[in-house]
Sequence to fold (858 residues):
Amino acid sequence: MDEEVKYTVVWLILVVFTVIEVQLIGISLVYTIIILTILLLAGVKAILVAGFFQHLFYEKKYIGIFYASSVFMIVAIILTWTFGR
Amino acid sequence: MDEVSFIKKWLTTTNHKDIGILYTVTALYFLVVGGSLAVLFRIQLFQPLMDFLGPHKFNQAITLHGLIMVLWAVSPLAFGLANYFVPLQIGARDLAFPRLNAMSYWLYLFSGLLLVSSVFLPGGGPDVGWTYYAPLSTSKFSPQPGVTVAGLAIVMLAASVTLGTINFIVTIAKMRAPGMTWMRLPMFTWGILFTVALMLFAFPPLAAAVLLLAADRVFGAPFFSSPYGGAILWGHMFWFFGHPEVYVVLSPAYLLMMDIVATFSGRELVGKKYIIYSIFAAVVLSFVVYIHHMFTTGINPLVREVYSVTTETISIPFGVATLSVIATLYKGRIRLTTPMLFAVGSVFLFLIGGSTGVYLSSVALDHWFRGTYWVVGHFHYQLVGAGLMALFAGLYYYYPKMTGRMYNEKWGKIHFIISFISFNLLYFPMFLLYDMPRRIYTYQPETGWAPLNMVASIGGWIFAFSFLIMVVNFYRSLRIGAPAGENPWEADSLEWTIPSPPPEHDFDTIPTMSSVSADGGVETVEHVHFHSLMPFLISLSIFIAFVGLATSIVLTFIGLLVLFLTIANWYRTDILERFSTKEIEYEAYPFEGVVKEKLGVWVLVASETLLFASIIGAYLFLRVRTPGWPLSYTIHDLRIGLINTIILLTSSLTIALALAYVKHGEMGKFKASLFATFILGGLFIVIKGFEWSELASEGFIIGENLVASTYYIATGLHAAHVLAGLLGILYLIFKAYRGKFNSQKYVGVESIGIYWHFVDIVWLFLFPLFYLI
Fold:
């Protein structure tokens, strides 16, 4: 079955990315770069789970827009609260 | 109907019209409670140095008045009308999820009772102001349990609101009659849609804020008592909810007013499309104006300037909408009935309220007006003058439809005249009291504030009395009012095409629309209204559990036991498909083919996303400000975090596979995948419990410091969501073993899968934030 292969590949990517996140902690780089890389990897993983497992890539366009609007709200909240001082 | 069956009917009904009546009556009850408190504190303020209430009772009265009026009276009054009329206006026979609708109501009622009952606890009810400003609301400064219990009432109300938002969004999106396109929706339905969209994003930050405050009060977790911006954090979290809440209260009333103005002007609303676009713009803008409530907190000057501009901008869409109303009145065949008087009166008051608010958007002027009676006058002109007056217009407008009787027009007009004059007597002097601080329980004679306060108090008492005129008018008209007929106002939306009061099933045939008016009907499957006691019992059990937290832990256990048994029964009836109905779709753009349950879960996920975003936002806020915050990987065992992350990712894989297998009819693999998901989810929780106990044994406990408190709150809330997801998976397993799924029937798997993946996604961010960086 195609889905078995597709989902397993996605899962493997997710696991590898998670291991990379953990390994990044030990390397000697500017810490800001490490933080940004880890958060970027987390974002990519979230897109993979939402897109393939949650089927967002195959859903109606407006469900994606709806979901994106809540992501926009998250960014607005976090940026305003964290840096609005 | 005998007494027992009468009570049983109202406790078990899931019919939208019954729920609408329950909401309306309950909201009017809370309006009386909140209004009575206002009458009391207006006595206290009548003269200088009055000793009628004293400071403690005065503070309780203003706090409860604010909470009740904003959250339990005005907004739910709109939702009473919405429950009754939105399905009728779109040509549906009920809301999408009738039992959840009943549960919304019962949670609302019991949350209100919980709030009011807090005054009987030792130390009295909440006395910290309706804004619950921290650190005043933390246990250090307000140790009495009433403050906590009122907070729990807000959490309960937030649950009610979340269920309501899901129901209305799915209903309006998916259950419109043939030909009922978006632009043909009546303005009131648009108003409710905008309102629930606002609620969807505004209430989760409030729920998150109150949860953090509860942790602060119960476990000593120092979120809002933190010297590194705890008070500012509360401001952000509260006003992110608080400002959109103004539009939550205002939007349904304002747009209902437009329907009424159009009806009694004898013409269509001018520029309807532009009004809808304008209000949509206002809804979006309403989330980026809230910092004007924090101008005096010393926040970054650039941020202040930006929010000053956005605040001034939001007056533009409302200006467009108001001009459209005036254009509709111009050259209209105006009939000055009671609803029309209240509607036009509300526009007038809205203009005063709006223009006095513009001053508050100025950073410089806000320094002078902040915390004065100018602000009190401004927001009462908006929420009571524009909001409540328009809802009164709605009550008069819809009374004939709901009861089949006409109210007494002469007394209706007398009510309008008295309430309009007394309203202005009450609130206009507050603009002249721009130098009097709000929330002070008394004042000195030499301040010169006495004459204006006397006028305001007298106006307030008359305004309260005028409400009785409407109640008596409605009560008497129930028996002696003239028969109303189908369409006494010659209005053209669908609710006016059926008898008054509407029959239980609403429409004999589902109406079809080729213009704004109905022009026929289509046959459809028979609609059955189910009765269920479970929404009532679930809400009651939560109420008992919460009361127990403040009084006796035994009560909490009883409440939780009843809750568990009721949820188990809910499962049983669902697995047996006792409440199943066939879904027929007519006008559902842009969600054609998306099953109601699935769309409902997507809406829930959007709401939950905001809940976690608020918790993460609070964590980041505190972390970047608190000196010496340790790096996460120096505290936690990375191996445990890594293993648990992989376990959760694997559970996402197995539930995704379960859906694929059931679609292909591979039922053995389907059941095995579900079972694997359950085991993996359970394992995640067990490991989490083990990890917590290890951390606790090392002294890393909630309340110890901000680092531990943020960790336990974020991961604890996530674990609670995993547990909820596990209950969902268990439900799927039971259903799968009873053979309720097949390759054509799998929406439950899809819906719970969406929720499970969402919980996984949240962890993908919690893991790096709390374990790695």
Notes: Residues 533-578 of chain B form one domain. Chain B has a mean pLDDT of 94. Chain B touches chain A through 63 residues (CB under 8 Å). Chain B has three domains: 15-516, 533-578, 630-772.
